[in-house]
Amino acid sequence: MRRSLPSILLAAVLLAAPPVNAQAEDDGDDLVRLPGQGLVKPDTGPAQRNLGRLVPGGGLFASFDANGDGRISAEELAEGTRAAFLLADANGDGELVALEQQDWAAGLPTRDDTLSNPVRFDPNLDRIVEFDEFKAVIAQLATNYQDGNGTIELAKLSAPDPKPDRPDRRPPGVPPTDRIGASNY
Predict the structure, then answer these.
(1) Cβ atoms of 120 and 102 closer than 8 Å
(2) What's the CA gap between 28 and 51, in Å, rounded?
(3) Which residues, other chains included, contact 101 with Cβ-Cβ below 8 Å and sequence gap of 6+?
(4) Is 54 left (phi over 0), alpha (psi -120 to 50) or beta?
(5) How far apart are CA 43 and CA 63, in angstroms?
(6) Can you count the helices (H) and strands (E) in the chain?
(7) Distance between CA atoms of 79 and 17, rounded to whole angstroms?
(8) 136-184 pLDDT, tens per residue?
(9) What share of the chain is helix, strand, coil (3-state, %, to 5)?
């Protein structure tokens, strides 16, 4: 009897626990996003809306184009970075905490995993992002897209669409598997 009591307790706990994947099944969101890529939100300006899918940080950089010429100069990058930090610093204390940064990233013209990750902006992990840390991350991201003059072309911020699912290459009659060697049937 002593041995069966722990088994019964374990079974009761497992039966009472909600399924872990219930949220994933219920939300119905079939959006496929590659890590770091941003999808342009439908309520953005026309210049950004024409891009569709953007490289990491692309939506933020596109918002820096102050004169609308389709190019972000080094000056526009510097001014835009400063303006972005001031916008993100909701309480105006000169520092960002994770919630401020995530709220700021949610308000950007794209859904971008790169900019919503607080750890990316906080390399010393002190849970506070100062302007110099913020500026360094934006500058590092910008180097991926700048030409020799430090200019970013809006047209080059467009990311490729994800590859479609690969066709089933199993021979006819071979059942699909969840893991190597285990049949679903």
Answers:
(1) no
(2) 26
(3) 88, 115, 116, 118, 121, 129
(4) beta
(5) 13
(6) 9, 9
(7) 51
(8) 999 999 999 999 888 999 888 887 766 666 666 777 777 766 656 555 5
(9) 40, 10, 45
pLDDT of residue 73: 93
| pLDDT cut 90: percent of the chain above it | 31
Instruction: Show the tokens assigned to 179.
Output: 């893991």
Token pair recorded at residue 60 = 């933020």
Chain-centre distance of CA 8, in angstroms? 43
The helix (H) or strand (E) run that includes residue 54 is strand 53-54
Q: How many CB atoms are located within 10 Å of the residue 24 CB?
A: 10
Structure tokens at 168: 């089933």
Q: Which residue has the tokens 């891009």?
A: 51
Note whether 36 and 114 are within 8 A (CB). yes
In single-letter form, the type of residue at position 117 comes to: N
